[in-house]
Amino acid sequence: MNSSFNISTSLLFLCILICFLSLRIKAAPNYLAIYCQNTTTYTPNSTYQTNLNTLFSSLSSNSTSINGFSNSTAGVNPPNIVYGLFLCRGDVSTAVCQDCVTTATKEVVQRCPNSKVVTIWYDECMLRYSNQTIFSIADELIGVKLRNTQNVTNITSFREVLGGVMDDIATRASNGGSAKKFATSQANYSSLQTLYGLAQCTPDLTDLDCNKCLRDGISNFPSCCDGNQGARVLFLSCNVGYEFYPFYNVTATALPPPPPPPSPAAASSPGKGGMSTQVLLAIVFSIGGSVLLVILGFCLIFRKRKKKYDVIESDMIGNEISAVQSLQFDLATIQVVTNNFADDNKIGEGGFGSVYKGILSNGQEIAVKRLSRNSGQGAEEFKNEVVLVAKLQHRNLVRLLGFCLEGEEKILIYEFVPNKSLDYFLFDPQEQEKLDWSKRYKIIGGIARGMLYLHEDSRLRIIHCDLKVSNVLLDGDMNAKISDFGMARIFGVDQTQGNTNRVVGTYGYMSPEYAMHGQFSVKSDVFSFGVLVLEIISGKKNNTFYQSECAEDLLSYAWKLWREERQLELMNSTLEGSYSRNEVIRCIHIGLLCVQEDPDARPSMATVVVMLNSYSVTLSIPQQPAFFARSRTESKTGQGLESDQSTAKSISWSVNETSITELYPR
Q1: What is the pLDDT of residues 135-155, one digit of tens each?
Q2: How many domains does the chain have?
Q3: Per-residue pLDDT tens for 150-202?
Q4: Does the annotation mark 466 as catalytic?
Q5: Within 13 Å and on the Cβ side, how many CA atoms surround 340?
Q6: Is residue 214 within 8 Å of 170, Cβ to Cβ?
Q7: Are 471 and 526 within one domain?
Q8: Which of 466, 484, 525, 553 is catalytic?
Q9: Which residues in 553-564 are b (16+ Cβ under 10 Å) and which e?
């Protein structure tokens, strides 16, 4: 009996030891991805590196924080101040968190040496530092997408289950009651499979910013990972993910189960009708051994699946900035091809800076957009434009060839478009004669197709937010090419509307719901397109009517002529003899439909394209367009509207087609 008992005890101890070792191996930090901004570097043994080491020490010592989050700074004088933070997964223990943060501070400088701006992600934590403040700022421009290439069998059912899980965790994680801004959920996909989901934000975000960040992450799943059995989207400020296995500690995130009923005390000794001690021990050890074997099997399976996921990582879609690093030019090259930004090479100037013509060593002509230091477009807008335009491929969109980001210089390199911008021809009395009706009609159609691509046909749904005549370039054949994506917004596949406290754009082209309430959607671009169509037909700027007795603005004037059935009087006089009456009236009709006050009453760009190409489509009757109430005094002084939002914010308007920005406190 004793020999048998000793063997059973040894086997049990061996099982426990193996499972313990397996769990210890699994608990080691599991590297996922890293983002290195190699354009901003520090010199080894410099003050910045000293401050960085101080920051690492501070973060490591704070890694036992009960919330699994801490931020800190090191240094006092720019540009050597280092801002850093870490975020541990909401279910991990303080010991695991500390181990992950310590590992991250060592590995990050090995994987990304001398970079001032770095983020490294592990399964258990994220570490981030920068030479600019990163605290309490929602940052979704940089993102890493990971996916499991195995697909589900019933995609319709999968989408439904995934949608429910993601909506639940995004809502709960961004709820003010969640101190960690962390939530998990699980749901049955089939009788044999359970879907697990996780969402987390850095706790320094507001509830609103957290919710937006998470839902922006979730909106990436349909385009990158539709039907995949697992996926993660890692932003700098939040992350979301799902798997068909528990990739987080389910026990730590679930409510504790009720305690089992106490075992009868009499079970330890034989009684009348009871079991012998030997039989009871055999049963207990058998059950215990079986349970441990099951646990051991689960541990091995989990590690196997984790390994499989790591192998797949090499095929993942990486962060967006890294994807376009190959497009980067050095500043010295740009200075050479533009003759050090000589005035003789300047071909245009806009709200964000000057544009120069250059010729590369291979003979290719380029347009170099040099952002002014006080332009209002900062690093975020610059990155936005690079990431967006590098992905866009359409004949009616200007093509990005490269960029330069060195020190204070932010430069974009585009294909050279020889015929400048549309406003150069449209509003110049000597040049507008070169735009006969056929050219103008082709330009309207090209802009419509380009906007349709942005809204519905590209990989992302993109709201331009600053469509105007000066942002439409013309190539050698007078084909329209939409440019300037510095203010553009990325929407999820199923997202239809967004809100912002930072209203940027050009007065006269902005829809009323965007200008007054910060609400933007594809219908905001449709409004801008409508204004642009009426300007192309009339050859007049929207704001030239402020000193006119005809009407308050171009929209009012077009509406007045429409109601009086004098539509053709809107047409530019240079078009006499070259126009098609039906096409002109139809374009005016479409323009008025696009500038209606109710966004829902405006057509989509898909409908606009159909309207322009088919006369069999019946157009609805337009309603009175949206007007901005402005007095003549306001128009002359350049003062603008006051926001009717509840908080006291001011908007600085401009009537000369420069960009505007709403100032608001953070």
Answers
A1: 988 887 777 889 888 889 888
A2: 4
A3: 889 888 889 999 999 999 999 999 886 667 899 999 999 988 899 999 999 99
A4: yes
A5: 0
A6: yes
A7: yes
A8: 466
A9: bbbbbbbebbee
